[in-house]
Amino acid sequence: xxxxxxxxxxxxxxxxxxxxxxxxxxxxxxxxxxxxxxxxxxxxxxxxxxxxxxxxxxxxxxxxxxxxxxxxxxxxxxxxxxxxxxxx
Length: 88
Hints:
- The mean pLDDT is 77.
- This protein has helices at residues 2-8, 11-14, 18-39, 72-85; strands at residues 45-46, 54-55.
- A hairpin with a 7-residue loop joins strand 1 (45-46) and strand 2 (54-55).
- The longest helix is centred in the first third of the chain and has 22 residues, at 18-39.
- 53% of the residues lie in helices and 5% in strands.
- The chain has a two-stranded antiparallel sheet with strand order 1-2.
- The chain has 2 domains: 2-57; 62-88, no CATH class.
- By secondary structure, it is mainly alpha-helical.
C-alpha cells in the first residue's frame, strides 16, 4: 500500500500538463506513421535531400532493429539479458 501512496504523490500526477502533452505527442506520432504508410513507398524520403527528412523504413526487430536476425530463443535470451543489465 505504501508503494501506491508514493506513486500518487509523484510529480507525474501533480503536473497537469504531462498527460495532455503525452497524449498529443502519441496521437500525432500514430497519425504521421499512418500517413507515411499509406502515401510513401519503402525507402522513399521526403524531401530527397536535406538535413530533416521523413523516410519510410520498416523495423522488424526491437529498438533500432536489435536482434532482427536472431531466432526466437536467442531473441528472448537477449531481451532478458538486456532487461537485467539495466535494472541496477
